[in-house]
Structures are given as structure tokens and as C-alpha cells.
Write a structure and sequence with these properties.
By secondary structure, this protein is mostly helical. It has two domains: 138 residues, no CATH class; 146 residues, no CATH class. 72% of the residues lie in helices and 0% in strands. It has nine helices and no strands. The protein is elongated, with a radius of gyration of 29 Å. The model has no long low-confidence stretch (mean pLDDT 85).
Length: 300
């Protein structure tokens, strides 16, 4: 995850470096060709380049805005997951601390039950993270295997849904009829988990404007190839002044900017992929799991 401006510059340079090399090589070759054949033999009207450049900029602007909106929605979803999880964990600890909330058969094992539910919550968060990374069948530790067996969680089904069902069944069985308010409160959090999971899966399963992406890549590539034809060389001070060589860095700068923006749009359009611009769901889920473990230490 990029946390500082310095890291941003470093990662931006890594992304742009291949485009700088390509643009410098291509523009240098065309510049040399232009000098060998003769000045302005292949130069196209700059007005055409301006109009074409505005069209390309419009396409890239729309694509970048759409990609950022998608990224920001993903970040809000996992922010909602953090809030809901922390609230659910706190209420589990609070409600299970009062024996009066439970049926007679559950009063003697409230500490054991809340520890197991907290562990299942942490496993659910870990599993949701894995599913966002397309890892639907991760390896399980001993604690997870024991809980799966005790709560009849079928690893062959969708594990995240199975865990939520197990937690909901346990809450339904434990709480007495006089504690319907507490039970309903916890069930609302279960419903929010389902809603958050559905929102995240919608983004993961909906590929980001692939036809538009292909079209934009073609247009940007075509425009970059034509940039030397639009600019040509610079004749300030005549052929002997040396100013004509300024055309190369100018063309490299313009080409790299367009290619880099298109690349960044592709990266931001996949917020759950494991790249430098993706939403830091690993860190978010790790903090939620840490909160679960800290609450577990409070239970005697």
C-alpha cells in the first residue's frame, strides 16, 4: 500500500518507466528519420493533433473517473465491514457477559460460546478476504477445522455463507425469549455482513468496462504513434541552434503521460486485485482479526 508521497513517486516511476523507454526510442527514431529525409516531410497539421488529443483526453478522463469511483466504492465497502465487525464483536462480548440473556442450557457455557463466536467471526473475515483474492478454498488451521466440525460448516459450500449461518444458528439457540432485543440486534449485524459481502462480490465479479478499455488502449496507442507527426521538430533559432532536439523530450513527456494515465485507470479499475493501487483489504482484515483476539483476552 502506498502511504507517502515519496512512495507514490517511486511507484509512479516504476509504472511509467517502460513507457518512457518506449516513447524515447520511438520518438528518437522518428526524429532521426525526419532529419535524414528532410524537414517536415511527414509532419501533419497541428490542428488535427489538437482535436485528436482532446478526444483522447476526454476518453481517458472518463475512464479514470470511472475507475476511481469503483476503487472508492470498494474502499467504502471495507470501511463498512470494519465498522460492522467491530460493533458486532463488542456486542457479542457485552451480551454474552450477562447470563440473564440466555436459555437455561446455555448459561453454563457462555464464555466458551462467545470465544467460539469471536473465532468464527475472525475466520469469516479471513475467508472474505481470501474470496476477494479468488482463493475460495484456503488451507485451514486446527482451530478452524474443529469449529467447522462442531458448527456443521460444510467446506464444500461457500464457506463465508456457511460461517454466517452457523453464527446465526448459535445466536438463535442461545438467547432466551426475554432477550429478543439483544438477539435482534446481533441478527441485524449478520444481515449487514451479507449486504457488505454482496456489494464486494458485485465489484469483484463485474469486470470493468473491458470493451471500452480495449477501445481506449487502441486510441491512445494510435495517438502516441502519431505524436511525432503532429509535432515534428522545433526550428527556434534555425537548424544550427540545436533547439530542434527539444522536440524529443516534449514528445516523450506527452506520450508517457497518456500511456501512464491509461495504465493507472486499468489498475484502479480492479480494486481487489493484488497490485500497488488496490484497496488494502489485507491490512483492514488483519486489524479486524486483531480486534477479535484482543476481545478474546478479556474473557476469563
Amino acid at each position: 500500500m502506498i502511504k507517502t508521497e515519496k512512495q507514490g513517486f517511486i511507484q509512479l516511476f516504476k509504472i511509467a518507466a517502460p513507457f518512457i523507454i518506449f516513447s524515447a526510442t520511438y520518438t528518437s527514431l522518428t526524429f532521426v528519420l525526419e532529419e535524414i529525409i528532410g524537414d517536415h516531410i511527414y509532419k501533419i497539421s497541428g490542428q488535427i493533433g489538437s482535436v485528436f488529443g482532446l478526444a483522447v483526453a476526454f476518453f481517458l478522463g472518463f475512464r479514470m473517473n470511472s475507475a476511481y469511483d469503483r476503487w472508492w466504492e470498494a474502499r467504502k465497502i471495507f470501511g463498512e465491514l470494519t465498522n460492522n465487525s467491530n460493533s458486532f464483536i463488542a456486542k457479542l462480548y457485552t451480551y454474552y457477559s450477562n447470563p440473564e440473556n440466555f436459555n437455561s442450557g446455555a448459561k453454563s457455557q457462555t464464555n466458551t460460546r462467545v470465544l467460539e463466536l469471536l473465532s468464527l467471526t475472525a475466520i469469516y473475515i479471513r475467508q472474505l478476504k481470501n474470496e476477494m483474492h479468488q482463493n475460495f478454498r484456503p488451507s485451514l488451521n486446527q482451530e478452524a477445522n474443529e469449529l467447522y466440525s462442531k458448527y456443521n460448516i460444510n467446506p464444500g459450500h461457500k464457506i463465508s455463507n456457511e460461517i454466517l449461518l452457523a453464527v446465526a444458528r448459535s445466536i438463535e439457540a442461545d438467547f432466551a425469549r426475554e432477550s429478543n432485543m439483544e438477539k435482534a440486534d446481533l441478527m441485524q449485524h449478520i444481515n449487514r455482513f451479507y449486504e457488505i459481502q454482496g456489494k464486494a462480490e458485485r465489484i469483484r465479479n463485474t469486470h470493468f468496462l473491458m470493451i471500452y478499455s480495449a477501445f481506449t488502449k487502441i486510441i491512445v496507442g494510435f495517438y502516441v504513434l502519431l505524436i511525432p507527426l503532429f509535432i515534428g521538430d522545433i526550428d527556434l533559432g534555425g537548424e544550427e541552434s540545436g533547439f530542434e532536439f527539444l522536440a524529443v523530450p516534449i514528445m516523450v513527456l506527452i506520450s508517457t503521460a497518456f500511456l501512464t494515465i491509461n495504465k493507472l485507470a486499468n489498475l484502479y479499475g480492479e480494486p481487489f486485485s493484488e497490485n500497488i493501487t488496490s484497496v488494502s483489504i489485507d491490512e483492514i482484515c488483519k486489524r479486524i482479526e486483531q480486534n477479535c483476539n484482543e476481545v478474546k483476552t478479556k474473557i476469563k
